[in-house]
Amino acid sequence: MRAAAAASFHLAPATNPAHPRGSTTDSCSLKPAPTAQPPRLRSLARRAPLVCASLGISHDKGSDISDPNVVGQNDLLIVGPGVLGRIVAEKWQKEHPGCKVYGQTASKNHHSELTDLGIIPSLKGTTIHQKVPHVIFCAPPSSSDDYPGDVRLAASNWSGEGSFLFTSSTALYDCSDNSMCNEDCSSVPIGRSPRTDVLLKVENVVLEAGGCVLRLAGLYKIDRGAHVFWLRKGTLDTRPDHIINQIHYEDAASLAVAIMKKRLRSRIFLGCDNKPLSRQEIMDAVNKSGKFDTKFEGFTGTDGPLGKRMENSKTRAEIGWEPKYPSFTEFLGISS
User: Fold this and answer.
1) How far apart are CA 169 and CA 217, in angstroms?
2) 194-208 helix and 37-47 helix, angle to the nearest 10 degrees
3) DSSP, res 188
């Protein structure tokens, strides 16, 4: 039995639930990597506007950072070092003592926090004079006016030697009505919605660059996730039996690190805990746990899709990974 990280959680001002990221391709199966990566990287760099020859994004934004040391073979650039990116940084630093971790952000608001975490912060548009061997893109679409362009720029900062990983979303697997869905399930088609179309383009950019995609289920921790959003609402006019797939932030980060260490090329992986729960089961667990001061009242809707049941045994077998928190209920400490 696993206990949650905090004994009690006090609700703060409302925030939106964790933003799913992702896109789609014609197939979400685990595909063999193409071999000729350097020409693709050069091609992507040529297509990106105002891209510097090294780790820069733009000549007319940001500043110029010169590191006196040669970039190390385990150095990492995190584009969008938010909650997930910071946990990735911590785990990567433990795996690779002495490495440098760069964090690229849209503003300077949290740069002092990143510095305290041992992350070298910079803005979009900052030039670091050497490309890095490892890049992970964690920034959500909501923070960008040109999401595919931002990913192309991130790809141009990758040396091609280690790994390039984009965190995507399981929302892009085309199944519903409680259907089982795994790595071999097809993706939603182009044209279904502007949101999924943008994400489709981003995944294609990553795969063309030789990078990998990690499609993540709903991220959560004690004070973030769908359960927090619903708890603040009290009641929601949505069906209680809709299926939700989740993964703890720590597990998403550990899976991302494990994938990057494999140095694979042009692959799509799936991140989930293999324990899908209905909305009602999630909030029953929240109420039962005793870790929150507020009780959820209920779901009142009867219409809408039933969702899907995600399963990622292929990813686990290939990467050699298992989650620390096998389910949301075990995270809350109410089941073995």
Assistant:
1) 6
2) 130
3) P
Using CA atoms, how far residue 192 sits from 23, 67, 195, in Å, is 12, 45, 9
In one-letter notation, the amino acid at residue 173 is: Y
- Which comes out higher in pLDDT, residue 195 or 212? 212
* Tokens at 242, concatenated: 């809709």
Query: Alpha-carbon torsion 231, 235, 238, 242, what sign?
Result: positive
Quick: pLDDT tens for 16-67: 444 444 333 333 334 344 444 443 433 333 333 333 333 433 333 444 444 5
Angle between helices 147-156 and 37-47 (to 10 degrees): 130
Q: Both tokens of residue 3?
A: 């206990």
Please name each of the domains of the chain with its CATH number: 76-220+245-273+310-324 (3.40.50.720)
Among candidate residues 246, 243, 245, 242, the one with its CA nearest the CA of residue 300: 242
Does pTM surpass 0.85? no
Number of neighbouring beta carbons within 10 Å of residue 155: 26
Q: Which residue has the tokens 């006196």?
A: 68
